[in-house]
Amino acid sequence: MNRILKARLHGFIFIYVVAASAFLMLMAMDVTGIGRTVLKAIPVSTLMVLVFRDMRGFVRICLAGALIGSVCGDILLDLPYANVFIFGLVSFLTGHIFYTVLFFRHAKSPNGFDKVIIAGLILFAGVMIWIFRGIATALYGPVVLYIVVIVTMCIGALLVPAENRLLFFGALLFIASDVVLAINKFIVVIPYGRIINISLYFIAQFMIIMAARVIWAEEFGSNAGHVRSIGKNLTR
Length: 236
Prior knowledge:
Blueprint: H1 2-28, H2 34-54, H3 57-78, H4 85-105, H5 112-131, H6 137-159, H7 166-186, H8 193-215, H9 224-234
Helix pairs in contact: 1-2, 1-8, 2-3, 2-8, 3-4, 4-6, 5-6, 6-7, 7-8, 8-9
């Protein structure tokens, strides 16, 4: 059973990597169209299938909600229409709220080192809010809200008890991805900015879900022990 589960998981990972790489190649070649948009949605949709298959209860609801919001955002932000950006932002904001609720439900009290990191994240949020103060008024409010929510999500990831920091590092990469996107869109064009943004995003989502599979392995059902073993091997 362990071998079968491991082979199936590796199959999902293979699809994730191939689809993500293919999308990045099309983006680098400046190929656009509905085919590219659909391809962009495949990697995170693959993670969503894993969540629906393996997770149970409140964990599955929150992770599925986060990934559904992300897939909607993936599609909206790849469409060639400027007026859909705000809807993509709202979709990802919804996804982050699901992550945040899950993480804080399982969060522990911060220790001294955690408090230092939290202070740094709060300072970072303040700096980002100040940097983007010059963007269009209609967008500034949603962007500020997004910054607050994603930094809160990252703090929640930091406080989830785990054997390693993979969940937190995934959340940090998510922030890095969004910072690249926002700077590239609102402040200054970054060479290969969109490719960097999406690459970080794909890695972040993968890390968060793989970490979640280990942390909440007890939610998996009768095969919990096998899944926990596989998840630990993949996160080493």
